[in-house]
Design brief:
Elements (H helix, E strand, L loop, with lengths): L8 H52 L4 H4 L9 E8 L4 E8 L2 E8 L4 E6 L1
Antiparallel strand pairs: 1-2, 2-3, 3-4
């Protein structure tokens, strides 16, 4: 006759303890990853909005880029938006949070945006 046996209380407690240890190790990693991605999205959005504002002000009000960049709005993570070069236009946005510093640069020559984390 076969005996049907379930898990003992000790076995269940050990399994739960292992899961808790794994969760304790992985949750901070994924939380920091989430914060980095959020900061990147916010800084990129601010950079693109600023670029749109500069182009709009140049077309409607004939405002030079170095004056229009001062009107760019910055959100929670973005600390500065700087016009590094006027022709060709190079625009840099820097973001800072508890997980590090992020610098995104728009280069008019290539038409691309690149970001680097420090």
């Amino acid at each position: 006759m076969t005996e049907k046996r379930g898990f003992t209380l000790i076995e269940l407690l050990v399994a739960v303890a292992i899961l808790l240890v794994l969760a304790t190790l992985t949750i901070p990693y994924f939380y920091n990853l989430y914060l980095r991605n959020a900061m990147r999205a916010v800084v990129l959005t601010d950079l693109r909005n600023c670029l749109s504002l500069i182009v709009s002000k140049a077309n409607t009000e004939k405002l030079p880029p170095e004056e229009a960049v001062n009107e760019c709005s910055k959100s929670k993570y973005t600390t500065e938006i700087v016009l590094e070069s006027k022709n060709p236009m190079v625009l840099r946005a820097t973001g800072v949070s508890g997980v590090g510093t992020l610098t995104c640069i728009y280069d008019e020559r290539s038409g691309s945006v690149s970001c680097e984390e420090d």
